[in-house]
């Protein structure tokens, strides 16, 4: 059953066409990530699904209903930190519980349960202005997890989070995923999108590829990148490495070389053995797996995010 | 009902916890009550000093209500828009009218707290009113009109000035400038004729004069603002501003673009 069905969706702001005929289907219980650079239209698409914006043409169905008829099923978490810094975590959740019509004691019980679930019980009575970015984001996800929500829309939830907070955040998402809630994640970070069961790549208002993360990398023929550092750099080392690079490319870097292979693990051992046999000491060697950012780059010749 | 209660609770808690709001809405008018009570009355005959202090207290109470409506309310709306809360609310099954009602009630409650504190300081400084008892009721009515008019202007500012900083600065600017030119910081009689006309038309200053007239008398108000035509103008314009602000707020702030 389709939780979200988007057909020929367009959105214009004046002369600027942000979405150009987007088609998208997300199954119930699926974890779908939409990945693209800033300005690609992904946030606009999420906002239309959440009935915050109206499309110029095309249609969006949420379990067969129009988005504004399905508001009770949607838990939308915008990109910005929307929780009030002047209120405590508990007060923020109480605000949303009461907006959703829960009465005093019912709301209090539900909020306590939710604070436990997101691991914020201890800090529940601190003002949100004193929370870390990760705590605040977990609190904001909780505002979208009240009973009845069937689709969770997360717009760039890990922007600005440190690696530990990011891991913690996706631990929470993993827990929600088990409960068969449909998750629609908007991101420009490949590592976040890789956690999804299916990924759509969006560029200039169009979905340019869509599949599982593994399939996207396989179909678009991305190679492992093997970085080799030796005690000394020389033409002889480069010639040995060339034999193991799929297209005979060897890139020289400041500290060593880079070669490319679809079978990085197998090549790794052979590279070490051959260099050792020729008398070149390997000081460091590592294999980097292909990423969704790499797939995006291969398809568009653009970076998903700017390198700072 | 719980949606209105939720918006009310959030609004009043935020107002009471934001130091800048407390300063502009409560501390600033109190400072003016103190200055007005001890500095501005130094040359006045002794017997009218308590009533001058009373008039100053009423004007600063009105100023507190004005700041709360014209600066704090749009700041609250702009902040909710800027930090994505408005988008979040639009995605939820919530009526904009209930959100609006909760906000306005929160503003009114906060305004009452501010007014009570300013009055208490004024009375402690020796402010006296010649009319009490039943004459207090129309004065309270005019103060409610101040809340309506300033909330209406605040809703307009919050609807059209999208950034928090801009909304607050615009609100403070409007409140301070209009209060200054309409005789809230000086006697009505000291205003030039053109500004006297403005003071009679601008519903906040005419409600201020009406409250002073009701509680102290014409001497302090500078003119009789309780004529049927003047009262009608004050009530009509205050309610018009509130209705206009409400309509534009629910149309533009909650519109899915």
Number of distinct beta strands of chain A: 13
Average residue-wise pLDDT of chain B = 91
* Assembly of the depicted chains: heterodimer
| CA-based gyration radius of chain A | 23 Å
**Number of DSSP helical runs of chain B:** 11
**Strand portion of chain A:** 25-35%
Question: Any low-confidence stretches of chain B, pLDDT <50, length ≥5?
Answer: none
Layout of helices and strands:
The complex is a heterodimer of chains A (about 300) and B (about 260).
Chain A: E1 2-13, E2 16-27, E3 31-35, H1 42-49, E4 57-62, E5 74-77, H2 89-99, H3 104-117, H4 133-142, E6 151-155, H5 163-178, E7 182-187, H6 190-193, E8 198-203, E9 206-211, H7 213-219, E10 224-230, H8 235-242, E11 251-252, E12 257-261, H9 264-277, E13 282-288, H10 292-300
Helix pairs in contact in A: 2-3, 4-5
Chain B: H1 2-17, H2 19-38, H3 49-82, H4 85-90, H5 96-124, H6 136-160, H7 164-181, H8 193-201, H9 203-215, H10 218-221, H11 228-253
Helix pairs in contact in B: 1-5, 2-3, 2-5, 3-5, 3-6, 3-7, 3-9, 6-9, 6-11, 9-11
């Amino acid at each position: 059953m389709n939780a979200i069905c988007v057909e020929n969706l367009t959105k214009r702001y004046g002369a600027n066409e942000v979405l150009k005929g987007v088609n998208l289907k997300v199954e119930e219980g699926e974890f779908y990530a939409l990945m693209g650079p800033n300005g690609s239209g992904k946030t606009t698409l999420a906002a239309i699904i959440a009935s915050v914006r109206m499309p110029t043409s095309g249609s969006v169905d949420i379990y067969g209903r129009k988005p504004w008829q399905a508001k009770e099923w949607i838990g939308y978490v915008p990109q910005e930190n929307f929780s009030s810094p002047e209120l405590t975590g508990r007060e923020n959740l109480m605000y949303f519980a009461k907006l959703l019509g829960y009465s005093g004691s019912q709301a209090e019980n539900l909020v306590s349960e939710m604070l436990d679930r997101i691991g914020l019980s201890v800090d529940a009575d601190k003002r949100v202005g004193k929370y870390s970015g990760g705590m605040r984001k977990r609190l904001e996800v909780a505002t979208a997890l009240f009973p009845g929500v069937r689709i969770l829309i997360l717009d760039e939830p890990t922007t600005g989070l440190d690696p530990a907070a990011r891991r913690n955040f996706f631990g929470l998402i993993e827990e929600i995923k088990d409960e068969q809630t449909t998750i629609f994640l908007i991101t420009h970070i490949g590592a976040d999108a890789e956690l999804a069961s299916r990924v759509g790549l969006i560029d200039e208002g169009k979905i340019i590829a869509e599949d599982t993360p593994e399939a996207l990398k396989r179909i678009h023929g991305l190679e492992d990148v093997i970085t080799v550092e030796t005690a000394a750099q020389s033409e002889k080392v480069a010639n040995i490495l060339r034999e193991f690079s799929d297209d005979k490319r060897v890139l020289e870097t400041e500290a060593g070389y880079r070669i490319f292979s679809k079978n990085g693990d197998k090549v790794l051992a052979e590279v070490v053995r051959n260099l050792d046999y020729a008398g070149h000491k390997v000081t460091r060697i590592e294999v980097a797996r292909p990423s969704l950012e790499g797939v995006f780059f291969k398809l568009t010749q653009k970076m998903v995010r700017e390198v700072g | 009902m719980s949606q209105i209660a939720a918006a009310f609770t959030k609004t009043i808690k935020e107002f009471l916890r934001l130091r800048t709001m407390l300063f502009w809405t409560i501390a600033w008018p109190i400072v003016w009550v103190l200055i007005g009570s001890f500095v501005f009355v130094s040359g006045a005959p002794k017997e009218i000093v308590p009533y001058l202090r009373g008039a100053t207290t009423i004007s600063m109470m009105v100023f507190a209500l004005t700041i709360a409506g014209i600066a704090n309310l749009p700041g609250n709306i702009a902040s909710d828009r800027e930090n994505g809360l408005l988008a979040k609310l639009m995605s939820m099954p919530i009526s904009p009218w209930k959100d609006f009602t909760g906000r306005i009630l929160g503003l009114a409650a906060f305004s009452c707290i501010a007014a009570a504190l300013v009055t208490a300081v004024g009375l402690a400084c020796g402010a006296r009113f010649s009319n009490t008892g039943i004459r207090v009721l129309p004065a309270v009515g005019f103060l409610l009109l101040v809340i309506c008019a300033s909330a209406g202007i605040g809703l307009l500012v919050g609807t059209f000035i999208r950034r928090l900083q801009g909304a607050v600065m615009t609100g403070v600017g409007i409140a301070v400038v209009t209060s200054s030119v309409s005789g809230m910081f000086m006697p009505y009689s000291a205003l030039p004729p053109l500004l006297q006309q403005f003071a009679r038309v601008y519903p906040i200053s005419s409600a201020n004069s009406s409250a002073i007239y009701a509680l102290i008398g014409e001497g302090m108000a500078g003119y009789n603002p309780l004529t049927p035509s003047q009262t009608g103008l004050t009530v009509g314009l205050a309610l018009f501003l509130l209705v206009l602000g409400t309509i534009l707020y629910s149309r533009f702030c909650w519109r899915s673009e």
